[in-house]
Amino acid sequence: MVDNVRLRLLRFLNADPDCFDVVFVANATAAIKLIADTFRDLPGGFWYGYHRDAHTSLVGVRELASRHQCFETDREVNEWIKSRVRAEGLGILAYPAQSNMNGRRLPLRWSHELRQAEDTRNEGRIFTLLDAAAILSTSPLDLSDSKQAPDFTVLSLYKIFGFPDLGALVVRKDAGWVFQHRKYFGGGTVDMVLSLKEQWHAKKVDSIHSQLEDGTLPIHSIIALDSAFTVHTELFQSLARVARHTGYLADRLHRGLTRLRHGNGRPLVQLYKDDTSHYRDTCSQGPVVSFTLRNDDDTFVSNNEVEKLASIRNIHIRTGGLCNPGGIASALSLKPWDMRKNFSTGQHKCGSENDIIDGKPTGMIRASLGAMSTTSDVDSFLAFLKEFFLNDNNTTPREEAVPELGSSCELVVESLTVYPIKSCAGWQVPFDTPWLVRPEGLAWDREWCLVHQGTNKALSQKRYPKMALIKPSLDFDQGLLRVRLTDSHNPHAEELTIPLSSDPRPFQSTEKTQPRLADVCGDTFEPRMYASTSLATCLSDFIGVPCQLARFPPMGSAGTSTRHAKAHLKTNNDIERKRPILLSNESPILTINRSSLNRLNEIIKADFGKAASPSVFRANIVLAEPWNTPSGFEQPYAEDRWTRMRIGHETFEFLGGCRRCQMVCIDQGTAVKNEQPFVTLAKTRRFGGKVLFGVHTCLLPRSGASCATIRVGDAVTSFSGDELL
Ligand SMILES: *Cc1c(COP(=O)(O)O)cnc(C)c1O
């Protein structure tokens, strides 16, 4: 059956089984690596040339080559082929049939031209490696003329069919001899091996695939591939038909994007398509549209922001560097020295949040269309961009009336909430209870966290919404942290109890075990892990992920710097430096303003019917205007201008707006995610690409005062303007 599927794959590519063989591998990268490993074993090493548009997996081959070269343009390749000097030794020219960055299709004729230009009297020879992983998902590849075909073609079958997880290397038999140089053998690729007294082996020679498929084949996946071919044909008939369909859709998307203009006439979309290609011409262009968005003042919108909103709307796009370093650098004019600087200063790396540096995007947005995409997918994506990112009129409607500089505002503390276990439910401080507040935050706030047993990362509700149903409460009479695991399926909630005292006995001894370093939002610290396996089992079973409870080490304890002692609570100094707006969601205290929430809820209720609960914002302090404030005199979003506030005798400083993400969409009572209030926040509260709600706050310690307390119901005066600092 495996051999039948090999033939079927060759037929899919119009490839004659007399001229080609198929090697099954895990993915396209594994196929590339198999070639690279083979060439590395050549006695004289090898030369490697690759095109700028190469996927990261093709670029990596250069590390095994003795000499390598990156072609920056098609013209460079053309000229190099024309002027081809005699190759010294063997080499590979590698390029993608379709750029995975912007869908541009590269000339398939290079294999043939290179072969013709080769001087046959010469010992040397350059093989061609075509990366067909991107092109084949929406377009046929025709290898019917073996003289013109690439020597090696690599593909990812799951990119065509979705399933099975399998890749393939298609080898032109004329080029197969090179694999005899591969040194490694394994079960499956060898006929006889001697190990004792004499070390000798005889490698398989009967076919190319039997020389290269080490170990057990993924038999079930290969057999599933047979069904994948059948189903794909039933659904779509042929890749040629898929190409026409997706070409039409991509053209529609592309034209729709170019039409999007802000009220002031500036375009919303910056496209990264090659000028010479056309979406309706499948030889020059695949159905991939790459772009970035600009605000009406020409500044770039953060791609991350677009992705977050898209995911709420069930739209799947890819953002960032797209695994195409050369293509991205050339399209975005990123200079290597800038990129290295950004990397070494920690500002940017693959997958990082901070994607606009010095006003320039470090990546792009890629919308790919496939066989199953529809016209309405395209239209709803365009509508989505319009809804969130287009500013139709010349004014900025989201600006609220802001209080005058230097004015003050009278409020009260409506509620105080602490989150004893980071990312779990909050616990409300009882009315009339003076609560200790320190520069690092409210007492008992984020004293514990849940740590993943495998990765040692602190768990977050963003990933594990069910953490909202872990409800801690502080029982000072018994000296216990009580944790209820509330689940609608399980009304008799379990209760776990943990001593509040810092008695070391419940913790794992650090003498016998290696100290464990945990990671909280990118900062490392050494937590004290609870030893109890039943505690771990309970929590793990509840969230469905192996985890353990950990307690932050006490402040200033031996061996922990202040920074590591409570990594989740950045020290005052740390925050000072990052004013005015923190990038991190973490700060000593988070304050929200009830009037702002009311204003937000007016809009949400109008669109959506159901108001957002204050609990989703996970604030520590909720401030409200006095009950007798006449209607119409509330000051929503006055906190945008506040610099300080006084609660009783204590002074607090505001450090900037709190950047929000989809986590505010998790209903804290049910752990169910929906699209509000993030969608409305994104429409009304986006500033410089950041969605802000609530303000980071910290206590300014009074000299001489030993401990500061605040309580629910306390009067608050907030101040705006610098002169009061
Ligand atoms: C996806 C892709 C790859 C990598 O494929 P894997 O199957 O993930 O190894 C390589 N090149 C291109 C052009 C791709 O699109």
Describe it:
The strands form 9 sheets. This protein has a 7-stranded mixed β-sheet with strand order 1-7-6-5-4-2-3, sandwiched between helices. The protein has a 7-stranded mixed β-barrel with strand order 16-29-28-33-31-30-35. 25% of the residues lie in helices and 25% in strands. α1 runs parallel beside α8 (219-236) and α9 packs parallel to α13 (375-389). The longest helix is centred in the middle third of the chain and has 21 residues, at 239-259. It is an alpha+beta fold and 725 residues long. Pyridoxal-5'-phosphate binds next to α2.
Report the span from N to C terminus.
78 Å
Poorly predicted residue ranges:
556-585
- What's the total count of β strands? 35
Q: What is the spatial order of strands in the main beta sheet? A: 1-7-6-5-4-2-3
Average residue-wise pLDDT: 87
What best-fitting shape do the alpha-carbon axes yield? Answer: globular
Total helices: the number is: 18
Outline the biggest β-sheet: 7 strands, mixed
Summing up helix and strand content along with how strands pair, one would put the structural category as: alpha+beta
